[in-house]
Amino acid sequence: MPNRRTQTSAPAEAPADPLLLVRNRADALYRAAIECCRQHDRAAKLHRGAAEPELEHQHMDKLCAMCDGSLSEMSAAYETAAADVHPERDEAWWHKANGMWHASREYARRHAGCDALSRKLSAKHDPKQLAAMQLEYELEASALLALRHAADAYCKTRPELA
Predict the structure, then answer these.
(1) Which candidate, 132, 142, 137, places its Cα nearest to that of 114?
(2) CATH tag for 18-82+93-161 (out of 1.10.10, 3.40.1350, 1.20.120, 1.10.12)
(3) 140-157, pLDDT tens digit by residue?
(4) In angstroms, what CA-CA distances link 56 with 42, 59, 61, 63, 81?
(5) By the 8 A CB rule, do 108 and 68 touch?
(6) Is the dihedral of CA 115, 119, 125, 128 positive or negative?
(7) In the prediction, which pLDDT does 1 show?
(8) Whole-model pTM?
(9) What string of DSSP letters covers the chain?
(10) CA-based nearest residue to 151, from 107, 100, 102
(11) pLDDT under 70 in the chain at which residues?
(12) Using CB atoms within 10 A as the burial measure, which of 4, 51, 116, 141 is most buried?
């Protein structure tokens, strides 16, 4: 029998106001987007240096994958919460949150495209394959930048998050 007691807490109830739930999910999406961008920035800096240990690269890749997964989950949670909610008045955060949601979906789509193309690449690369891969990577980087801009725009409507 264990000596320590485990505390169980009741799950937090959803706010009575559906718009508040959507805003909470948008805030969570914002935090996931910022962290995803931050980890990818760190990975880019690490991969620029040729003398870095391979183990560190592996861990950074795992961190980026975890952040990408978190971003996808938060995006899906926001989508579910916002699907049937329509604000009665024009809310600036609402529009910026939807833009951030779109940017997160585009980033996930581009990232998945890069992964699929990387898996298909054979040992013998022809110039067309390499050109297609370079284009996909550039589109993914562009989508990540768009995500960062969308998150920054959302934060301007919710300065308490900064």
Answers:
(1) 137
(2) 1.20.120
(3) 999 999 999 999 999 999
(4) 11, 5, 9, 10, 37
(5) yes
(6) negative
(7) 43
(8) 0.84
(9) --SSPPP--PPPPPPSSHHHHHHHHHHHHHHHHHHHHHHHHHHHHHHH-TTS-HHHHHHHHHHHHHHHHHHHHHHHHHHHHHTT---SS--HHHHHHHHHHHHHHHHHHHHHHHHHHHHH--SS--HHHHHHHHHHHHHHHHHHHHHHHHHHHHHHH-GGG-
(10) 100
(11) 1-15, 50-52, 121-124
(12) 141
Q: What is the pLDDT, as a whole number, of residue 108?
A: 96
Question: Structural domain boundaries of the chain?
Answer: 18-82+93-161
